């Protein structure tokens, strides 16, 4: 294989990796911008501090993941996630990650303070107008949140 073909091959591989690494599209918008409704998002850290709080417009099919990521990006707060679509999982917000405070620590979300969705991925839970999303960092598997 010639050197130019090898270089072209490497270049194409880099482009493919870059395209695959693009972030997931977000199905949310600024509150009131052609949306079908609005939800509120509040994110509370491990010591009870409010990291972020805002309202966001939702579209048909918007999920907890969509609304949360939109608010975090607008506030320029770093976050990490794994998975895509219905398997999306937020593992870190504002430099605070699951297991940072022990084996039972991590991020939990609740919609309208309902605990029944605690086993549903944030990428699978579809929102409706008026929903309230609360993200809480637990140090003890949720026992310290007052929610479980």
Q: Would you kindly provide a written description of the structure presented here, covering whatever features stand out?
A:
This protein starts with a helix and ends in a 10-residue tail after the last strand. It contains 2 helices and 8 strands, in the order αβββαβββββ. Residues 11-23 have low confidence and may be disordered. With 148 residues, the protein is of the alpha+beta class. It has one domain (24-145): Ferric Hydroxamate Uptake Protein, Chain A, domain 1 (Beta Complex). It is 20% helix and 29% strand.
Question: Secondary-structure blueprint of this entry?
Answer:
Blueprint (H helix, E strand, L loop, with lengths): L2 H18 L7 E2 L7 E8 L5 E9 L5 H11 L4 E4 L6 E5 L2 E2 L8 E6 L20 E7 L10
Parallel strand pairs: 2-8
Antiparallel strand pairs: 1-3, 2-3, 4-5, 5-6, 7-8
Q: What proportion of the residues is helical, as a percent range?
A: 10-25%
| CATH architecture descriptor name | Beta Complex
The first-to-last residue Cα distance is 62 Å
Number of DSSP E strands: 8
Task: State the CATH class.
Answer: Mainly Beta
Please give the count of helices.
2
Number of domains: 1
Structural class: alpha+beta
Shape: globular
Round the mean pLDDT to the nearest integer and report it: 84
Tell me about the largest β-sheet: 5 strands, mixed
* Radius of gyration, in angstroms, nearest whole number: 18 Å
Helix and strand run? HEEEHEEEEE
Uncertain runs are 11-23
The CATH topology annotation reads as: Ferric Hydroxamate Uptake Protein, Chain A, domain 1
Give the strand line-up of the largest sheet: 1-3-2-8-7
Tell me the fraction of residues in β-strands, as a range.
25-35%
Oligomer: single chain
């Amino acid at each position: 294989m010639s050197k130019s073909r090898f270089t072209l091959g490497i270049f194409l591989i880099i482009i493919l990796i870059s395209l695959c690494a693009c972030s997931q599209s977000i199905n949310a918008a600024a509150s009131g911008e052609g949306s079908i409704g609005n939800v509120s998002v509040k994110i509370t850290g491990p010591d009870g501090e409010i990291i972020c709080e805002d309202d966001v417009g939702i579209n048909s099919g918007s999920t907890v993941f969509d609304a949360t990521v939109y608010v975090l990006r607008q506030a320029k707060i770093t976050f990490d996630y794994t998975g895509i679509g219905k398997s999306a999982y937020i593992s870190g917000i504002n430099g605070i990650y699951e297991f940072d405070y022990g084996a039972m620590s991590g991020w939990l979300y609740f919609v309208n303070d309902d605990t029944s969705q605690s086993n549903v991925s944030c990428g699978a839970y579809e929102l409706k107008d008026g929903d309230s999303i609360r993200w809480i960092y637990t140090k003890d598997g949720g026992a310290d949140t007052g929610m479980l």
